[in-house]
Design goal:
The complex is a heterodimer of chains A (257) and B (280). Chain A is an all-alpha fold. Helix content of chain A is 84%, strand content 0%. Chain B has 280 residues and is mainly α. The chains are: A mainly alpha (257), B mainly alpha (280).
């Protein structure tokens, strides 16, 4: 019974929305809004074919590559800058400025420097995604508990072991918050880098459909992007739950006390 | 949430560290300035030494001169005005909608459960996916920018408001009920003050996101503003001009961040807790 209620809560509103959409497109034919049936049909037709291999997979590959590189650079840089006081003071204003630059404006810059190539698209994703991870890591490393830090020092834990067993776990909740921001930003940048100057990829394809007024196809592309966003979000939540299991457990104990 | 972090003796910054940093302040700022100088010097040297072709990355001095020249041009300020108008309007619409819906959904358990799946599904949809739709509906007008900005900023604020309303202390709420405060009065005196810090965090995040989307819309769609100028400068080969505009967007970003932190400080001056931010 309880499971049924939960399922009802999860499904009721989406079903209602689809019904409203279906009912509103029954009579009048609106050029901008395809019927649910058309959209589902087009979706299968457009995306479950050669296009999946030629446009979707490369896009997703570039996205994952860019985000992974951004996370590695951000965490390594963040641990370094967060641990060294003078380095942080030295770089803080510059980093603040770079974070404040809206990442999409780097697309024309990188096109100039690298040309319209696949590395350019990955570079766009990295250049935007690295900041949330970097800055959150710096904050997380700074906030390492003083007592723990002193204990580690007393036991002679230093260097790599200190980073591995003290700094990274302490900073991990913050790092994950940064990664979460990076993921959604990465998806946005992936699309923009393909819309701006490209001949393949998800962003490019959707713009092509729009320019040729293939409205149902365009919508199906928007749905693909949406599903991609949702999938990334779920994968992230699952990963976060596993990585931060100890942390959430600790929080529960603290809150219960 | 915040009170728990205090009570549990979580990682609260120690007072001693603060006192040290006050004494170090001038040194810290000097280091910061040195960092900026170092960055500019590096930038100056890279094209001068031919590591990257000067045609693609002009030296820093050249770009700064172009930026100063921009400051004297009416056209530049008109573009800035267009971008900021789109940013402000989109942000205000998003905040208004999100606060309204957030309080309505948040104040009822049933609505919260019923909308959860839809919110979780719609939130990760990247707002740039709506670009083609915006082009079809509005073309290169400001409405295109507004559509993207509002969509992106709305979720940031809504999620924070929902968190904030959920954080209301039941004892305080029941006390207010006992004293005969009506629903509206409870929202005004109990729920709103509790949710305000969360709301401000959401607004600050949304302000940044709104700027990113405003520039994106101008860049990709060509609605009026700085983003369009950047695209035009790039296709017209005015490279120093393009870099100057990129710097300008960065400066606007810094200003918006500063402004938001200031507003947050002002509105939450009564709120003494060191709250841990829920970053969405």
């Amino acid at each position: 019974m309880k499971a049924l209620t939960t399922l009802g809560y999860v499904l009721a509103l989406p079903i209602l929305l689809v019904l409203v959409w279906w009912a509103s497109t029954l009579g009048a034919v609106n050029f901008f809004v395809p019927t649910p049936a058309t959209l589902v049909g087009k979706f299968g037709e457009v995306w479950f074919g050669p296009r999946f291999l030629s446009d979707v997979l490369p896009s997703v590959g570039r996205l994952l590559l860019g985000v992974t590189a951004a996370i590695v650079i951000g965490v390594v840089g963040g641990v370094l800058i967060g641990s060294v006081r003078w380095l942080r003071a030295l770089l803080e204003p510059v980093l603040e400025f770079f974070r404040a630059i809206p990442p999409p404006v780097l697309v024309p810059v990188l096109i100039l420097v690298m040309g319209v190539t696949d590395p350019m698209k990955v570079a766009v994703i990295i250049s935007g995604c690295v900041w949330p991870v970097l800055l959150n890591t710096i904050e997380g490393v700074r906030a390492v508990d003083g007592v723990l830090s002193d204990s580690a020092h007393t036991y002679g834990i230093s260097g790599w072991a200190r980073v591995r067993y003290l700094v990274l776990p302490s900073a991990s909740p913050q790092i994950m918050a940064g990664v979460r921001q990076s993921l959604s930003l990465g998806l946005i940048l992936m699309v923009i880098s393909e819309m701006f100057a490209s001949s393949s990829g998800l962003g490019f394809t959707i713009v092509q459909f729009q320019r040729s007024f293939a409205i149902p196809e365009m919508w199906s592309g928007i749905v693909v992007l949406g599903l991609l966003g949702v999938a990334l979000s779920f994968i992230f939540q699952w990963a976060e739950r596993n990585i931060l299991r100890w942390y959430h457990g600790q929080k529960e104990v603290e809150n219960a006390a | 949430m915040s009170s728990n972090a205090m009570a549990s003796g979580g990682p609260v910054p120690s007072v001693g560290r603060d006192r040290r940093s006050v004494r170090r302040l001038p040194l810290k700022q000097l280091l910061g300035l040195a960092g900026i100088a170092g960055f500019l010097a590096t930038w100056e040297l890279i094209p001068r030494l031919g590591i990257i072709d000067e045609r693609y990355l002009p030296p820093a001095t050249e770009v700064i001169v172009a930026l100063v020249r921009d400051f004297g041009l009416t056209a530049f300020w008109i573009s800035v005005g267009e971008t900021m108008t789109a940013w402000f309007l989109g942000l205000v619409i998003a905040i208004a909608l999100a606060v309204l819906l957030g309080f309505v959904i948040g104040s009822s358990d049933f609505l919260r459960k019923a909308t959860n799946s839809t919110v979780e599904f719609l939130r990760p949809i990247p707002s740039v996916a709506l670009i083609p739709l915006a082009v079809l509906l509005f073309g290169v007008k400001i409405e295109s920018s507004l559509m993207l900005i509002t969509y992106a900023a709305f979720w940031q604020v809504l999620i924070q408001v929902l968190y904030g309303v959920a954080d209301v202390d039941m004892v305080a709420n029941n006390t207010a009920k006992t004293y005969g405060l009506g629903r509206m009065a409870r929202i005004r005196y109990v729920v709103f003050p509790t949710a305000l810090p969360y709301l401000m965090t959401g607004v600050r995040l949304a302000a940044t996101v709104a700027l990113v989307l405003a520039i994106t819309a101008e860049l990709v769609i060509g609605s009026p503003g700085l983003g369009r100028e950047i695209a035009l400068a790039q296709s017209g080969g005015a490279i120093s001009g393009m870099y100057a505009l990129v710097l300008a967007t960065g400066l606007i970003g810094v200003l918006i961040n500063g402004l938001m932190r200031f507003i947050e400080k002002k509105t939450l001056s009564w709120h003494s807790s060191v709250r841990s931010e829920v970053i969405v």
